[in-house]
């Protein structure tokens, strides 16, 4: 997606307010799981959704509807209205005290048409639609959720949200949003009541690491020296579009036995290779790809997570390659590695990950350009969030986060949709990435001979 000209428009925000549960809720302390409170999840992630005017909702105000529905949904999801604190061994727990979540009402002198693609990641207008009140985004003792609803002059609105990742993953958040949607549309109770059950993803007693967790290996170069951390001073973001034409072109790079690979595997292998080429790393160094894989799937249903479970239920199994092999070999090499990453995920992997986290004191994920993490959010359920105005035009995570890319749908209204991949790189590397991607997605690439 090309760069967009700046768009200036006034936003009138009301003072942030705390929305509390509509009825009294239990005062108690609940422990997060040992998957929830990993160091790598101790951040807030932003989600943005755009809605067009709906004539059938004339006379209804989206801000008022959502504010009331949010309060009613918090009766069921009351831990989200609490505050986190930390116990021994960095163990996180929620003080369920009904203190509330932050809510901001706003008006913007702009239309959806004028906004155009600016609502899509990396969303250059995010600060307008998701204000960050000072000292509100800490992990401990801060609101766990922030919502801003902004009316537009066309009658549509923007729903912006920021949530503490330790409380839930994207699928869990979608369950909470669905609860808000049901309350907004007049339900007296929820079709799927939430279930805490975080103990199902706790470490064993005694904890035992039974799988290889490359994602936590220290980043060393080919000489055995530590790789420098990411320099954030000259970073740029752009989203890259993968539609049917790009997917068709990429499949031409594959041998017959990989011709049925998923679009996720294909896009991820392509982006990983182009990213690595663009960074011009030492050919002998090691790079790693980590794919977020959800534990709610059929392959690992022996975890027996209840359908209403809204905690973090994913891990990022990782595979490695030398820079030289990834860059020199055909695309199929990367596809097979991505498949291998996903295939590691099962109940034992999740148990080992929880055990690893506890044994190692919840260590941080190594940060460096040799690391790339991808999360597919095209099918999370964000796009079903309906408070009476219909499905959002766009719904997804608003930006990449340094070494993490969150895949999103480009259009939530169509059955056929393209994939947006936001990429965060140093400016010069981002230009090289675009050139490498153009080479990979040329339509005239000859099919690999059988």
Summarize the structure in words.
With 450 residues, the protein is an alpha+beta fold. Helices cover 24% and strands 22% of the residues. It contains ten helices and 18 strands. Strands 1, 2, 4, 7, 8, 9 and 16 form a seven-stranded mixed sheet that branches. A six-stranded mixed sheet has the order 10-18-17-15-11-14. The radius of gyration is 22 Å and the shape is globular. Residues 444-450 have low confidence and may be disordered.
Which helices and strands, and how do they pair?
Elements (H helix, E strand, L loop, with lengths): L10 E3 L3 E3 L8 E4 L12 E8 L10 H15 L6 E4 L5 E5 L4 E8 L3 H4 L10 H4 L15 E8 L4 E8 L5 H15 L50 E8 L1 H8 L11 H17 L6 E6 L1 E2 L19 E2 L2 E5 H6 L2 H13 L3 H13 L11 E6 L17 E4 L6 E6 L9 E8 H14 L10
Parallel strand pairs: 7-8, 11-15, 15-17
Antiparallel strand pairs: 1-7, 2-7, 3-6, 4-9, 4-16, 5-6, 8-9, 10-18, 11-14, 12-13, 17-18
Helix pairs in contact: 1-4, 6-8, 6-10
Structural class: alpha+beta
**Estimated share of beta-strand residues:** 15-25%
State the end-to-end CA separation: 34 Å
Using only C-alpha atoms, the radius of gyration works out to: 22 Å
Main sheet characteristics? 7 strands, mixed
GO biological process, one term: fruit ripening, climacteric
InterPro entries: CAT-like_dom_sf (IPR023213), Plant_acyltransferase (IPR050898)
Keywords: Transferase
Protein name: HXXXD-type acyl-transferase family protein
Which terms would index this structure?
450 residues, alpha+beta, 18 strands
Could you give a short description of this structure?
Keywords: Transferase. With 450 residues, the protein is an alpha+beta fold.
